[in-house]
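2024-03-11 09:14:02 INFO receiving multi-entity request
2024-03-11 09:14:02 INFO entity count = two
2024-03-11 09:14:03 INFO echoing inputs for audit
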Amino acid sequence: MEDHIITINENSLAFEPGETILDIAQRNRIDIPTLCHLKNTIPTNTCKVCLVEIKGSKDLVESCATKAAIGMVVSSESPRVVNARRENISRMLASGNHNCAIRDFDTIDWTSFQLGVLKDDQKNDLCPVWGDCELQDLAYRYQVKTKGMPLNECQYETERANPFIIRDFSRCILCGRCVKACCEIQVNNAIQFGYADKDLKIIAKNDAHLKDSDCVFCGECLQVCPVGALIPDRAFRDDRFKDTHTVRTTCSFCGVGCQMDLFVQDNQIVKIDGADVNLPPNNASLCVKGRFGFDFVSSSDRLTLPLIKKEGKQVQASWDEALALVAEKFTAIKDEFGSDALGVLTSARVTNEDNYIAQKFTRAVLKTNNIDHCARL
Amino acid sequence: MTNTIADIETSDMILVTGSNTTENHPVLSSFVKRAALKGKKLYLIDPRRVKLADHADNWLRPFPGTDIAWINGMMHVIIQEDLHDKNFIAQRTENFDALKETVEKYTPAYVEAITGIKQEDLIEVARQFANAPAATILYCMGITQHTCGTDNVKSLANLSLLCGHLGKPGGGVNPLRGQNNVQGACDMGGLPNVFTAYLPVGNEEARIKFERAWNVTDLSPTPGLVATEMVQKAYEGEFKSLFIIGENPMVSDPDLNHARKALGNLEFLVVQDIFETETTRMADVVLPSFCFAEKNGTFTNSERRVQRVRKAVDAPGEARRDWEIICEIATRMGYEMTYENSHEIFKEIADLTPSYKGITWERIDQIGIHWPCPSEDHAGTPILHTAQFTRGKGLFHAIEHTPPAEQTDEEYPYILTTGRVLYHYHTGTMTMRTDGLNRLSPECFVEISDKDVQKLGLDSGAMVDVSSRRGKITAKLKVSSKAVEGTVFIPFHFAKAAANVLTNGKLDPTAKIPEFKVCAIHIAPASA
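2024-03-11 09:21:47 INFO inference complete, emitting structure
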């Protein structure tokens, strides 16, 4: 093992045989940018942004696809690398509707700057991922200017026919991350590269809309898309500059226990992403229910006040009245018919803490073991 | 689960049975599909040709309710061909001879006659299972929701023991839990026969421990009633009051007409929920509570991993925390129950629950821990039974095939099996509030084979009346390659055409689980 050392940017780093330069860099928090790499999938080398220079080697290599070798000396930000990276970023920016990066502007007024961008773009709407785009970030980082870059008309119309997911092909950089997420991570095999050359497009089977394909709307593609080609079909994209915070929690649907990040604005969940790719049990994956099925939380149909049945009709009541009635009736029934005439159905939906209290109440207060839940149903 | 979810990908052979994994446990199914993609063996044994069949090496189709027969058949082949793990059997198990004797008559030909599974397919899967260095069994409600559900599970355990696939990475017998905290509800003693960590209520030592901790006397030593029994006793008039928390039995119970009468008989019904449901409508008192995004606490997942739940938003109106409501009722009944917060409750749980003793909220802040975790310096237990079983040696159970409680006949010629679809969850109170999910799965349907639909002289999309000995619903026919001639599937989510009006309430004698997966039905064009 001691011999398995490479040098990246003058840092001597140990590696396991089989690891790529990118793996080692990421493990050691050396930031080599990439737009197409996706952890746990086979590299496709489409973006050419992760290029690095290896001492003694004529050509730059893709760090995502190059395995480390003993004694290798790597530079990830040499002038040659930076030049090549800028060219590739520039190529991607020019390939579609990405006229969003660095411009010459002399005002510090943000609104007029934004309006200026829209005018330059000949668009009425700001890119829905403006400020949350990996390509844009890299354009800033490597100072790639787009002012004056000709706008490239996209031959494919934006697909808005689906629930949950909008596909804007004009912003797709064909990095292939979504295909890998679909075919290698979730293995739903719903999308692939279709057509060729200048017609290249990510397609579902028969180039159908996602809703008419094998797509099961897990949204893994949405989560990994580095640009604005796949965006959620909901308000969040319009409100993304509002104050947002995230809360990590456990999904409340099936028993897999996926870890997820809830994005919260104004006391409302506006988006859910799978948590960290290194975090079990789900390694950042989610399903359609976990990712998109959260409207119920802020539904106006939620029960907000106790109800008591009076003369055959349920009417709203105060907590004091409702709790007093429940305590009185439970006590009366227990006294008249005995403890075993009462029972509690606790729930596989509520927390351990809630369940513990429910069984403690049943056993210690009602004095019966008539407690069960919906495990069998 | 005896093993972890991540462990599935390290298995050499995955046997999935009675599980529509891609729809009911989608993220877990990706572990199975990735394993198959990497060349690991995958076999699906299920009455429906569910999506996972596309990824499998082979799909074996048993008649519904014949699982013991094919499992015994696999064991017959394995013993016959001398592929069983004799070391493991000698060192870690007992009662092998009784098993061997029982499975002797389950020849591939005999099994084919009962199950419809082709002899060569049975032999193939038996060999693959026995020869794999590590083979895992994943099962779900298709195994358990039968009158012989307990015996089905024991049979799968027999199979795994026979080949020494328990207590090691990539192996195990793994039930996939269908609800977010069904594991935790069991662990917490939300069952009629046990306190937390499965300490029996009949055990005096356990009772004394809880009496001391709770500062009460005379805890009942008699196991209580399971849910289905409470409903039955209510039907008979003996049972007077039920407090239902976060559940909608008026859609999820079997034989709903029976359940409606039973709940209607109660003197006093209290339901605590986040929405109005078919069940809250019957209640004398409805108490509004918090949903997961409003709570702090823990859930325990299918692989026994205790994980944090965190508050993200405020609850609406005057809704209250579930535990707070219960504590308030207790206090008003003369037993004071007060806690600062749910963290304080968790500390009491850890204190009284040996398998949770070493788990603290601080320890699971970043990543959950698998119980048993007996002390704070214990890392948790991802894989169970590595050195010995809970009872010491693994016990083989000699089990005979028993047919389902209800058989088809001239009047009710089709078998009905029920379950969920990908886009909805249980009785739909949560998922049916998302438009996109309703667009993808708008209504109830009767999944049927093209042969059966031709036999009926109807087209896909036709409205039909589906009736059983217990009731009738009306829904749309949907021809599907998942369905096999003679068997139809109806999802139970939809209250308007509730499949559980049709299902049979007959129970497994041990687990008291209803036979949701087999009942006999009749299909006819809808009577306008």
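2024-03-11 09:21:48 INFO post-check: Chain A has a mean pLDDT of 91.
2024-03-11 09:21:48 INFO post-check: The first helix of chain A runs from residue 21 to 27.
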